[in-house]
Amino acid sequence: MPRSRPGRVRAGLPRRRSRPGERDRTIPGLSGAALAEIRRVERRDTRLWPGSAGWAWERWRDFVRHPARRQWDLYESGVCTEWACCGDPWEARERLDTVMAAMSRRGARELRRLIDTLDARY
Fold first, then answer.
1. What confidence tens digit (pLDDT) does each residue in 18-49 have?
2. What is the distance of C-alpha 31 from the center of its chain?
């Protein structure tokens, strides 16, 4: 019996459907190898979940780009009224550091280059 072609086998597989409201959280500007490595790190590390690096990237990017970012002081009130619904930007930045520490040098260098751009803006 002849072997089935791989393309035909893949075409017969069911497609992964995303849940309503679910988006693919990737970090723009990274290579495919770096994104694949981030996904492997997210699966391996128990402190992370699938998409946590993308979530952290979005939180940190949005915080740095926000015009009132300098008015937000964690020690003043202890509770952020503006970012409470979206997540703590400092926690997001720490999560990015966790991901970079678990990546290879090459992948971490790519991610660090993007994060350093945001850090310089902050």
1. 554 555 678 999 999 999 999 999 999 888 88
2. 14
Residues 103 and 39: beta-carbon distance below 8 Å: no
Of residues 41, 66, 63, the one with CA closest to residue 53 = 41
CA nearest neighbour of 41 among 54, 29, 28: 54
What pTM was computed for the model?
Answer: 0.69
Contacts with 79 (C-beta within 8 Å, 6 or more apart), sequence order: none
Residue burial 81-93, b: 16+ Cβ < 10 Å; e: rest: eebeeebebeebb
Annotated domain spans of the chain: 27-121
